[in-house]
Amino acid sequence: MARTAEVTRETKETQIRVWIDLDGTGESTISTGIGFFDHMLEGFARHGGFDLKVETKGDLHIDMHHTVEDTGIVLGQAVKQALDGFKGIRRFGSAYIPMDETLTRCALDLSNRPYLIWKVEFSRPKVGDMDTELFKEFHHAFAMNSGTCLHLETLYGDNTHHIAESGFKALARALREAVELDPKTHGRAPSTKGVL
């Protein structure tokens, strides 16, 4: 059974279409109008092993906030839809990602009880043209809409690019582990409640 989903969302601020295959090969086609954000989402797909298509048209003449946050919303919804009730998955995932002087840790639980712990600091307000404060907005939107309890922490690092990128890669690798099918669940939701 294919674990794919396509979600579209249209508002006065953004028009977004996301398609994802959780069991893909890491191929992606990304277009958000924000070069660095495209780069981050391409890395997310590649290191998660997800096939991903993202088409976002946002009100960039105002700023990048709606584009980034709303893309996080729709990507989260697509992941949750593709998981079909979280049945049969490992549920938990974690990753440590080093990038030169930076080390970032991600731990997550696909619990359908969304939460974000964000312990990431940037030394500069921008990377490329993108405001660094928007990375938290993206991860929060993703967590809330995918049903993920997400803890992301940069343990140390100085370079703004490395801090941002290691966070996306850590999320991807942890999510890759969590969405893996676990034969010991026998196709059930991995919870004593019987449902997530």
UniProtKB/TrEMBL annotation:
<dbReference type="GO" id="GO:0005737">
    <property type="term" value="C:cytoplasm"/>
</dbReference>
<dbReference type="InterPro" id="IPR000807">
    <property type="entry name" value="ImidazoleglycerolP_deHydtase"/>
</dbReference>
<dbReference type="InterPro" id="IPR038494">
    <property type="entry name" value="IGPD_sf"/>
</dbReference>
<dbReference type="InterPro" id="IPR020568">
    <property type="entry name" value="Ribosomal_Su5_D2-typ_SF"/>
</dbReference>
<keyword id="KW-0456">Lyase</keyword>
<dbReference type="Pfam" id="PF00475">
    <property type="entry name" value="IGPD"/>
</dbReference>
<comment type="pathway">
    <text>Amino-acid biosynthesis; L-histidine biosynthesis; L-histidine from 5-phospho-alpha-D-ribose 1-diphosphate: step 6/9.</text>
</comment>
<dbReference type="GO" id="GO:0004424">
    <property type="term" value="F:imidazoleglycerol-phosphate dehydratase activity"/>
</dbReference>
<protein>
    <recommendedName>
        <fullName>Imidazoleglycerol-phosphate dehydratase</fullName>
        <ecNumber>4.2.1.19</ecNumber>
    </recommendedName>
</protein>
<comment type="similarity">
    <text>Belongs to the imidazoleglycerol-phosphate dehydratase family.</text>
</comment>
<dbReference type="InterPro" id="IPR020565">
    <property type="entry name" value="ImidazoleglycerP_deHydtase_CS"/>
</dbReference>
<keyword id="KW-0963">Cytoplasm</keyword>
<keyword id="KW-0368">Histidine biosynthesis</keyword>
<dbReference type="GO" id="GO:0000105">
    <property type="term" value="P:L-histidine biosynthetic process"/>
</dbReference>
<keyword id="KW-0028">Amino-acid biosynthesis</keyword>
